[in-house]
Every structure is written in structure tokens, then in C-alpha cells.
Write a structure and sequence with these properties.
The protein is of the alpha/beta class. It has helices spanning 11-24, 67-81, 86-92, 103-108, 127-136, 142-148, 152-164, 204-225, 245-251, 283-303, and strands at 29-36, 42-49, 53-58, 93-98, 168-174, 180-182, 191-194, 232-234, 267-273, 323-325. The strands form 2 sheets. It has an 8-stranded mixed β-sheet with strand order 1-2-4-3-5-9-7-8, sandwiched between helices. A two-stranded antiparallel ribbon has the order 6-10. Strand 1 and strand 2 form a beta hairpin.
């Protein structure tokens, strides 16, 4: 997708692009409205493909982290085009693509929705409530669940996720400052990759999700590392992965707005881009990292190489450098 280096897509432009892709897809792509935001904007999801393996791709959960929208649209446009391997991919996979998860926050240029609620944190898995309730010998109060899914956007997305039941989730973010370096060279980095959940592979469900999460992360890392300008790293979090956010919620089958059990969990990888402003990359190169990482994941699924990927390698600091705070003299 051709982009202006200095221009950030607003919601009207994202909407227009989705309508354009629907038109040129000749019936291949369905454009759904999952509901409406607090201020009444449509919550768009593009649905295409007819394969058994289902993938959910989302961008711009945080309104001030815009590049996930462009990356999602780029992948969507390639799938709609009919060129390359797109037909093969669509025969094996079905996609739900949400380029602008948070339209109100995107228009305001801030992190949360119109009420400044962080939609990513709405997917908390209630671990603290469950632990306390167990200690006290009581059930988790329904109000606790309702608080975790209090925004109208989160409710619509939870039901969409629970109905679509994606096997895989790609979640695009980027940090709003650039003070991170690579642990192997003390040089500014361009991209952080991580997983929800943990890497310890303990219980049966944790084993499958944690292993597959880590496999998603390592194939994404390998794909992006091939870009000659990119310095990918593991996002600087403890070795149990990122415990919060939408990605963590889907990996544990977080209860719905009324306490519904979805009966489903997804594997997830998320990307944290470094900002173009005062950062090492321009906009187009920054977005390309997202796109290449996403295609690395899709290609690994299609080829069967995802199952062959070594999940432990992602957590080996000698093989995948870790993002860290930059020394003051850099």
C-alpha cells in the first residue's frame, strides 16, 4: 500500500481503504461492523478466506500507536489482490483483520478510547481476583468481570473473538518513546517482539499455548531479522512473557462481559515498534517491520514450519537479544 511518509491515516481514510478493498475483492472479502464505539464510529473487521486455520490480526488498540493500522491494511491488500501465494493462503486460512481497534482514541491521538479507558487492559484475566477469591473461599464477584469488560468496544471485540475462535492472534503496538537498546550491542533497536503467557511449559494448556506463542515469536523474529536495516529484539519483560493485555486474555480464555466462558484459547504474538519521531527509522521502514513479521508468521503456519520452530530459542539471550534501557551516553 503506497503511503505518505509524513502522514498518519485518520479513521475516515482507514474506512475508505476498507471499502475500497471490499469492492476490488469481488466478493472475496466481507466487511463486518462488529458494533460501534463510544462515540458511534463503526468497529470494522474484514473477513476473508475459507481455510480451517483462523487468524485474527489487529492494529491500533492504542490510539496513539498508529502503524498497526497501516500494517494490517497492507497484509489485507496483499490477500485481496490474488497475487503470489494469496489464493493458496486463503484456501488454508481464514482471516479476521481489524486495522483500527480503537477509532475514537485514534481520532483523539491518545492511548485510550473516548473515555480514556485503555482497551488493551480490558482483557485482564482476573488472576488477582481469582487468587483472592480462592484464599477467601468465595467465587469471583460478577462486578469484577464487568469491570474488566466495561467499555463498549471491549464487549464487541470479546464476542467477535469468542465467535470467530482464532487459532492465532497478531497484535501490533509501538512504544511512544525510544530509549531502548539491544543487549548485544548497546545500539538503538527498531522492534520488540514478545508473547503473552509464559515460557515454562508447565500445565498441559500452558504447554501448548506457551510453546506455540514462543514459536510464533521466533519465526517472526527470524523473518524481521532478514531486513538489512532492522534490529529486532525480545521485548524487555520477564521470562514468563507479557501477563496483561488483549493477547494475554485470549491465551487464557478470559471470561466475557457477563462472565461467559468462551471455551476457546488462542496463541498470540505481539510486536512493539519503535517510533519514527526521533527514532532510527522512517515511517515506511517501521511499518515494513510489522508487515514482514506478520508474513513470517503466516508463511510458517502455511508451510508447517511453525511446528518445527524451536520455542526455547526465543528465550535464549545469546540467540535473541533483549531490549534494554539505553546507557545515558548513547
Amino acid at each position: 500500500m503506497k503511503m505518505n511518509e509524513d502522514h498518519i491515516l485518520d479513521f475516515a481514510e482507514i474506512e475508505a481503504k476498507l471499502l475500497e478493498l471490499k469492492e476490488i475483492s469481488r466478493g472475496k472479502m466481507e466487511l463486518q461492523i462488529l458494533g460501534h464505539s463510544h462515540e458511534g464510529r463503526p468497529l470494522y473487521a474484514a473477513l476473508l478466506g475459507y481455510g480451517d486455520t483462523r487468524m485474527w490480526i489487529q492494529g491500533r488498540v492504542h490510539g496513539n500507536e498508529p502503524y498497526g493500522a497501516e500494517a494490517s491494511l497492507d497484509i489485507l491488500e496483499a490477500l485481496v489482490s490474488g497475487e503470489g501465494r494469496s489464493e493458496e493462503i486463503l484456501s488454508k486460512m481464514t482471516f479476521m483483520v481489524i486495522p483500527c481497534y480503537n477509532p475514537d482514541g485514534s481520532e483523539k491521538g491518545w492511548r485510550g478510547n473516548a473515555l480514556d479507558i485503555d482497551l488493551n487492559r480490558q482483557w485482564g484475566h482476573l488472576g488477582i481476583f481469582e487468587k483472592l477469591a480462592k484464599e477467601w473461599g468465595i467465587e469471583v464477584p460478577p462486578i469484577a468481570i464487568e469491570l474488566f469488560m466495561s467499555s463498549v468496544e471491549s464487549k464487541h471485540y470479546w464476542y467477535a473473538w469468542a465467535n470467530f475462535k482464532p487459532h492465532y492472534v497478531i497484535d501490533y503496538h509501538h512504544v511512544c518513546h525510544n530509549e531502548y537498546c539491544s543487549s548485544d550491542a548497546n545500539k538503538p533497536v527498531n522492534l520488540g517482539i514478545n508473547t503473552p503467557g509464559n515460557s515454562t511449559f508447565r500445565a498441559e494448556q500452558e504447554h501448548r499455548i506457551s510453546r506455540e506463542n514462543s514459536q510464533l515469536a521466533i519465526v517472526a523474529y527470524d523473518a524481521v531479522k532478514k531486513l538489512n536495516y532492522c534490529k529486532p529484539t525480545r521485548y524487555p519483560l520477564p521470562d514468563q512473557g507479557f501477563p496483561q493485555g488483549m493477547g494475554a486474555g485470549v491465551t487464557v480464555g478470559v471470561p466475557g462481559p457477563k462472565g461467559e466462558e468462551p471455551g476457546w484459547v488462542s496463541s498470540c504474538v505481539y510486536f512493539e515498534n519503535m517510533p519514527a519521531i526521533n527514532g532510527p527509522l522512517g515511517k515506511d521502514d517501521a511499518i515494513r517491520q510489522f508487515v514482514v513479521g506478520g508474513w513470517g508468521v503466516i508463511d510458517a503456519i502455511i508451510s508447517g514450519k511453525l511446528n518445527e520452530a524451536d520455542p526455547e530459542r526465543f528465550w535464549d539471550k545469546t540467540k535473541v537479544p533483549v531490549m534494554m534501557e539505553c546507557p545515558k551516553n548513547i
